[in-house]
Amino acid sequence: ISICRDLPNIEVITFSVNGISDLEPLHQCQNLSELYLRKNNITSLDELFYLKTLPRLRVLWLAENPCCGPDPHRYRMTVLRNLPSLQKLDNQAVTEEELSQALVDGVEITAPPARRSVESGWPECAAPSAAGSTSEPDSELLSCSLEETDKTQEELDMKPVSRDSSFSPQETDCSCKKRNNVLSAILLLMKELDTEGLEIIQETVARRLQAFQKKELQEE
């Protein structure tokens, strides 16, 4: 995610299911308002240190990372204590009562994480979680990738991707994940387009579809 250092004006980032462990590149994204990091390899809540400098961050999805630990309450309270401006955490609205409780039950993070160390999180759960992320079957990884794309489309009020026609059995998991990441990025960028821009996209897509259909007919 080092590319984020060159994107200071980006507002929405979807990096779920990507093996990310370091959030340092995000600290310069001062306009970031929504950040989706579900199911990565973030082992320590100390990584929140880099998000504390983001004044506009309102939505964070951090669930299914090793840093969530064995205690869901402690995890949520710690996140809210350090990011009190959040309006939604892990797809659940943040309440005033939670923000008050976070001052009591949450842990204040005052320093960045120590790299190559397991002392700053919940090490007892980090190892199995990391191992699980590398041993997931292809079907589960593909399911996660499709699920993330559907969530992105849901945010944009679009229909979900069809499970039946989006991917052929011969495709590798890597190519499936790449396609979904590209699709998610395109959908998010389309949100920023005006009518003229969307019409250009529509014309380009129509021409490309015609080209694919013509190629298929020739092959038959």
Secondary structure: elements and pairs:
Elements: E1 12-14, E2 34-36, E3 59-61, H1 72-82, E4 88-89, E5 92-93, H2 96-105, H3 123-134, H4 138-155, H5 173-190, H6 195-219
Parallel strand pairs: 1-2, 2-3, 3-4
Antiparallel strand pairs: 4-5
Helix pairs in contact: 1-2, 4-5
Pfam family, one: LRR_4
Biased composition (Basic and acidic residues): 148-162
Function: Plays a role in cilia formation and/or maintenance. Plays a role in the regulation of cell morphology and cytoskeletal organization. Involved in DNA damage repair.
Write up this protein.
With 220 residues, the chain is mainly alpha-helical. The chain has a domain at 2-105: Leucine-rich repeat, LRR (right-handed beta-alpha superhelix) (Alpha-Beta Horseshoe). It is 43% helix and 6% strand. It is built from six helices and five strands; from the N terminus they run βββαββααααα. α1 crosses α2 and α4 (138-155) packs parallel to α5. The longest helix has 25 residues, at 195-219. The radius of gyration is 20 Å and the shape is elongated. 26% of the residues are buried.
